[in-house]
Amino acid sequence: MKRFIDKLRGSQQALSQEIPTRPIHKENLETITSHPRPEPPQLIVGCAQSTGVQRDNNEDALFTLSTTLTGDFRNTPFGLYIVADGMGGHQHGEIASGIAIRSMASYVIRKLNSPLLSLKPNLPEESLLEIMQEGVQDAHSAIIKQVPGGGTTLTAALIVGNRMTIAHVGDSRAYLIGNNGKIEALTRDHSLVNRWVELGQITLEEAAVHPHRNVLYRALGQGEPFDPDINSIQIPDTGYLLICSDGLWSVVPEEEIQAIVQKSKNPEQACQMLVEAANAAGGPDNITVILIRLHV
Amino acid sequence: MVKLLRRSGVLETHRITQNLDNTGSHPTQQLEPGSSLGNRYLIQDVIGLGGMGAVYRARDLHFPNVEKLVAVKEMINQARDALVRSTIVRNFEREANLLATLDHPSIPRIYDYFTHNERSYLILEFIKGKDLEAILGETDGFIPQEKVIYWAVELCDVLHYLHSHKPEPIIFRDMKPSNVMINHHNHVILIDFGIAKPFQGSQRGTMIGTEGYSPPEQYRGEADHLADIYALGATLHHLLTKIDPRLEAPFSFGERLLRQFNPNLSPELEGVVYKALQYAPQERYLSALEMKEALLIFIKNTGILPPKPDKKSVPSAQEQEFQPMWEFACEDEIRGSATHANGALYVGSYDNNLYALKATSGEFLWKYPADGGIVSKPLVYEGNIYFGSEDHRLHVINARHGQINWTYFTNGPVRSSPYIAEGHVFIGSDDGYMHAVNTLSGRPAWKLDVGAAVRSTPIVEQEYVYFGTEAGELFCVDFSSKVRWRFKAKRAITSSPIVQNGVVYFTSLDSTLYAVDAKTGWVIWRFRLGKASISTPCIAEDYIFTGAADGNIHCVDMRTAKQVWSFATEHQVTGSPIIYNDSLYCGSVDKHVYCLEYSTGRLKWKYPTKGPITGTPIAVDGVVYIGSNDHHLYALPA
To answer: Which of A12, B14, B208, B455 would suit a FRET pair with A54, their CA atoms being 20 to 30 Å apart?
Structure first.
């Protein structure tokens, strides 16, 4: 009651003494103490890429952008992270993936530049979901126009405040990695074998070695009409967002990915270790990894 | 410009019936209207465009005295690789030669075939009509099932003709709405015999695909005539549900039951479509003829063209026959919602009274007279009842006996409902202010001028107050009345916001359901409703539910902003739905109380009252309470 009246009077003292704390789980203690919660809230990012052991050319592309903005009450961290994996066996896989990330990034940044940085704060005219949807469509059209027949996967995460909006086409993946040993895929592969697994026609083990395991039923630059998966979730208090191409997840098991992330000192080192693990496992494909520590 | 298309994993000429948006930037020039081709075909118009050329309507100048129209299908071969070039030409020739050997009313006739440099042309019968994709796009609501069945029978006929072709059966391989024309005599014509060759190889990264209509085995290059049966099933599924399979996961028809989307369909027709869509080829109809016979039996049993079941004259099985546990009559309409607390039910009426009833029996306990109608939902807090009235006041009365404790005057009718947090009651008024009043003293802590009537009920979450205004703004203000952000919709926000996991959800008269970030006011997503809404959404699992003036109760996935289901009532849904156990309860202006299974939208029962329902039900201990404009409050078994 007193606190409320204080606030009604405009007193800020009461607030500063009562920053809420809550008990920390034992298993979280180590991680949290080793990574003190940054102030202001910010996104700490690492990334790594490798052509792999068995390929000569890199058809993956990645984009990262992290901003920190303080100075009004919002303290809105803003980040955009994209992985694209160009389709081999098609023309110019590497060109398609490059076009995809540039189109997508420039579209989203154009749309959010004014809401974030204009002197008079204004709200974006479109919803975050629409911005991501249109960004993917833009990239799709750009590929059809510039490399007809080309195709690429695209997995993009837009972080604004504590909201994460993910746009996804193909079989690159986004994972949420908690500090409690949990790793959870946020995307669903648009691959034929995954669909067969979902239908119970083949097992996960069969899928891993299936000759059609890289065949996609949805990719950027391919087919019309075209509908990306887009969803929006609240970012957990702590944890990591991992975006990677199939060069990582097809050879490094999820538990191992999780363990590497947990034991590494920082996202940069974790990404290096993940790429090394994929190459150690044979490195049959291009490997791209982006890891974002979430403290927002 | 070689296109390795994803459909059916085949190399083929590009779909030229398809429209692409960026045709203006296409590097190849189209033929101009007015130009002539081979001194014979006068180009009139472009009727289709694609990556490899266009389709034109042209006049055959060999018939100078009559206007004989033909379709000219153009293919521009820009492949640099010699092998690819020759494959494209060979496929085009194959289409021409195949068409030349076919003779069936549902297959267009071919008149000529020739090549100029890198351009090849097919001269085909011009079909006056529209393809099924265009018809789907133009149809409001559903295409009547009788029409679809009629087309389906003709499609079975032409498939049977192709499949029994000698010496080799012909597999169409690409049955889908855009490849079926309906001519002006309402007959079907298959178009686009672009020739497929079996899918080869499993090269890493090779993309094959689906238009969503192809069966599983076609991905393995094993397509035989049963693939056409599946694709016909998929086409019928699209026509009957209006859900485009290209936007869904492959082979997921079984997850989208026909009658879940289009309840007027007969179960027998659903059965025919699902048999065609079986995953295993041998479980489908084994021939087009067999499928046609199944359709004919259905037509015969139901009287050729089965009339639509008349909902009004035939009593629905689900029309509830039970009696209410009790009902209580006021002297005027109940437009608002009741509140339950400590075994009592409190409800306001337009007879100016707030009634207290015994929840188990509906027995009258007491009433308290205000000086105006009451639409505000009463709130019980520390032994008192808070509610607003048309008499401009916030009333605070004792919950046990109904004696007045204090009242607080605003300068306009109070239609908003109170919300209490941190010892203060927050309530909006038509006077254009949001009021924060101390619950102990009855004195205002502040009032905030928001420039328009506030009928929306505020909600307090994480020390911020959220509410809508009739000017279409959603406000987020802190406890000292400082505006943190405001969001502007295109029309009034009468709906009351709800907050979950850092997101504010509400509807607006601008026909939109909004999800807005609670911290920043940024829109996360919007969902378009058919018409305006003043309904307050409710949430269960990952689903959000709301009513709208389009007469529907909508269920939307909160992660993807996509519709899960919608249920049509027979009038506006201005009240709000609630979730109780596995059911959704909602009233409609069509006078009914509806109980739906919330995960599917399937009707469990409906109960008819004698007046429109505009309030929100409540559910407590297995009983649903709801008021109606017929002056009654009903207690129904949940």
So the answer is: B208
